[in-house]
Design goal:
Elements lengths: L15 H4 L3 H16 L15 H12 L5 H6 L4 H5 L6 H18 L3 H17 L7
The structure holds protoporphyrin IX containing FE (HEM).
The site of protoporphyrin IX containing FE has 21 residues, from α3, α5, α6 and α7.
């Protein structure tokens, strides 16, 4: 039961999705990132031959994560990122390559400083959480 009277509830304020400028920003980000993956010696071997769907799903996922429409989950179900990445061997080199390519995409397409910091922090933490091979 929610006991806060409606009138006292703070305005929710714009989402990160809105502050980022809506869907276009995320589609540009994902397209830029996958163009880089296509030429990345560390990441390319992990991905399927045809990369054309990947940017689409990454964009829908990020839109949802940042508070926009939930088309990703409506079409794919719960993201379960760790489970979906289990088939790929992700070590520190893959994590770093992923984050560095994504950082360049963020710097190219995201103007709002708060959104930039939010995304970079999310990518650092999540890519680290996706590491699934032990290295000495
Ligand atoms: C912040 C980190 C990451 C996020 C948010 C992320 C997110 C995603 C998403 C949303 C998908 C699409 C899944 C789907 O089809 O529904 C995906 C696919 C994929 N990711 Fe990641 N990922 C991250 C890091 C990595 C890393 C470090 C690797 C290293 C190899 C990786 C490899 C892959 C591959 C190979 C696919 C393609 C799967 C396929 O099409 O068969 N990801 N990722």
């Amino acid at each position: 039961m929610n006991t806060i009277p409606l009138a006292a509830r703070p305005e929710p304020g714009p989402t990160i999705y809105e502050k980022a400028g809506g869907p276009e920003t995320f589609f540009k980000l994902a397209a830029h990132f996958y163009d880089a993956v296509a030429h990345d010696a560390v990441l390319r071997p992990h991905y399927p031959a045809d990369l054309s769907d990947n940017a689409w799903w990454l964009a829908l996922f990020l839109i949802q994560y940042c508070g926009g429409p939930d088309d990703y989950s409506r079409q794919k179900g719960h993201p379960r990122l760790r489970m979906r990445h289990a088939p790929f061997k992700i070590g520190v080199a893959e994590r770093d390559a992923w984050v560095n390519n994504m950082r360049r995409a963020v710097e190219a397409h995201v103007e709002n400083e708060e959104v930039k910091a939010y995304l970079l922090d999310y990518f650092e933490r999540t890519a680290t959480f996706l590491i699934n091979v032990k290295e000495d």
